Amino acid sequence: MGGCGDISFSGVHVWGSAEALSNLLLSNPETIKGRRVLELGAGIGLPSLVACFFASHVCMTERREELIEHFRENVRRNLPLIRRRRARDASLRQEDFVTAQILRTYARGGDDAVSC
Q1: Residue 70 in contact with residue 78, Cβ under 8 Å?
Q2: What sections of the sequence does the record tag as coiled-coil (predicted)?
Q3: Quick one: pLDDT at residue 25?
Q4: If DSSP codes are grouped into helix, strand and coil, which group holds residue 106?
Q5: Counting C-beta atoms within 10 Å of the first and last residue's C-beta, which end of the chain has fewer, N or C?
Q6: Which residue range is the domain that position 74 belongs to?
Q7: Radius of gyration over alpha carbons of the chain, in Å?
Q8: pLDDT below 50 — which residues of the chain?
């Protein structure tokens, strides 16, 4: 049974914190406008997707590769809206401003290394 404390529920559920952060970014876009954004353990990546509308570059990280692919597809589907919102020309490509990476865990110590 999935629930708020069940980590396996990640990737199939929009967490309250992701919704709150997304709303905060939509209400205060100047906090990330033109900046580089990194989301660690993004799950389905709602805040990263919202950040695509304002940030110069967004790096979404997740341990589960299938979630990375879902995020890339979400950005692709929303690219016309992102282009319009960013007031960029039609040549803007997803690769120009989005990086999605698998978060790798070292075998010893459990430290995460991220490179975007």
Answers
A1: no
A2: none
A3: 95
A4: coil
A5: N
A6: 15-104
A7: 15
A8: 1-3, 105-116
Residue that has been written with the tokens 């209400």 in this structure = 27
Global pTM?
Answer: 0.73
Q: For residue 10, give the 3-state DSSP assignment.
A: coil
- Residue 7 falls inside a structural domain: no
Inside any domain, residue 9: no
> Which CATH number covers residue 77?
3.40.50.150
| Counted domains in the chain | 1
Could you tell me the two tokens for 77? 């589907």
Task: Write out the two tokens for 82.
Answer: 């992102």
Can you list the positions of beta strands (E) in 1-116?
A: 36-39, 57-62, 98-102, 104-105, 112-113
Which residue type sits at 69?
A: E
- Residue 43: inside a domain: yes
